[in-house]
Automatic annotation (TrEMBL):
Transmembrane segments: 12-31, 43-60, 90-111, 123-143, 171-197, 209-227, 247-269
Domain Rhodopsin positions: 32-267
Organism, scientific name: Myriangium duriaei CBS 260.36
Source taxonomy: Eukaryota, Fungi, Dikarya, Ascomycota, Pezizomycotina
Composition skew (Basic and acidic residues), residue ranges: 302-322
Primary location class: membrane
The protein's name in its UniProt record: Rhodopsin domain-containing protein
Pfam family, one: Fung_rhodopsin
């Protein structure tokens, strides 16, 4: 891909994912304000991810203006060190966003669970959450420590003077592999869960298709790891580094969007079905799983319906009542 095309792709993709994700977060916040649904832990993590993604996007603007996405021989020497420092900052921020977005998925699945299900399932989710937190903290600590050792351009050229550089890169490969594995588990698990719930077959199929889109973060994690290898083993740091940023954005951005769509889906479906109730019995669409500690129900007759929110005490705190 030509350098200018990579710069445009980086800006366009990161901005598009950031805007769509933030819009979905605001839409969900609107429904919370209208008492259609309540706040829960998955929304808490998604808000953090969206806020961090805005900071990431600001750094994308700065680093592309300095030359990220261009080949190294096209960049002024004075900009190479600042770009490198920004790359390290964005790797730390990207790792933090990826972890918080995946924690939102864990919280969402935890909310979809019912008390009658086997404890092993929740133990799996808890283990994934702990793993995400630990590897996220270690990754950020290694990257920031490595960045602090790069003071001059000579330090950047002489890798032997940067003691933790190889450790940081090696752990980044491990982080990428673990991110992909977690994405696989968080994609397969809800599909199994949905097909064990007492829902209509069409609802199960639609939910499975939606959840299957979780393959996007998996592919992005693989691409990010490959791009990181190209960056660390090659000499064109500014060009290959932009690929890493693009993959980071695709990974956490698609996760934020998917986690936001799943709880909103039943609300939109309910509104859609409510328009055609003259030909259907209202009880056909009595309840939709929110996956966020609530159920939204239609009660009343065909001519008079209203929303009520039933809280599920086993699925975490209700911040809306606080």
């Amino acid at each position: 891909m030509p350098a200018n095309s990579l710069t445009r792709a980086t800006l366009g993709t990161t901005w598009a994912l950031c805007i769509v994700g933030c819009i979905l977060v605001l839409v969900r916040l609107y429904f919370v304000a209208r008492r259609v649904c309540s706040l829960s832990w998955d929304f808490f993590w998604i808000v953090i991810s969206a806020a961090l993604s805005l900071a990431f996007q600001a750094l994308v603007e700065v680093i592309t203006q300095k030359g990220a996405g261009k080949h190294l021989d096209e960049i002024e020497i004075a900009n190479i060190l600042p770009i490198t420092h920004l790359f390290f900052k964005m790797f730390s921020l990207g790792a933090a966003i990826a972890c918080t977005a995946k924690l939102a998925v864990v919280a969402l699945l935890w909310g979809m669970e019912t008390p009658s299900r086997h404890k092993a399932w929740r133990a799996l989710l808890a283990g994934i959450a702990v793993c995400l937190i630990v590897i996220g903290i270690v990754q950020v600590a290694l990257v920031e420590t490595t960045r602090a050792q790069i003071v001059t351009l000579a330090d950047l050229l002489n890798h032997k003077s940067i003691h933790l550089l190889s450790d940081s890169y090696n752990f980044a490969y491990f982080f990428g592999a673990m991110s992909g594995l977690v994405d696989v588990l968080l994609t397969v698990y809800p599909v199994v869960l949905v097909w064990t719930l007492p829902r209509a077959r069409s609802t199960r199929i639609a939910t499975t298709i939606l959840i299957a889109l979780g393959i996007v973060p998996i592919v992005a994690a693989i691409v990010r790891t490959v791009a990181l290898h190209e960056m660390t083993t090659g000499t064109d740091v500014t060009y290959n580094g932009a690929k890493v940023l693009l993959a980071f954005s695709a990974e956490y951005g698609s996760t934020v969007i998917l986690v936001s769509i799943v709880p909103l889906g039943p609300i939109f479906l309910e509104s859609w079905h409510a328009r055609g109730t003259s030909k259907r019995n209202a009880t056909d669409f009595t309840s939709y799983p929110q996956g966020m500690g609530t159920e939204v129900e239609l009660v009343g007759t065909d001519s008079e319906k209203k929303h009520t929110v039933k809280e599920s005490p086993a699925d975490g705190p209700d911040f809306a009542k606080a």
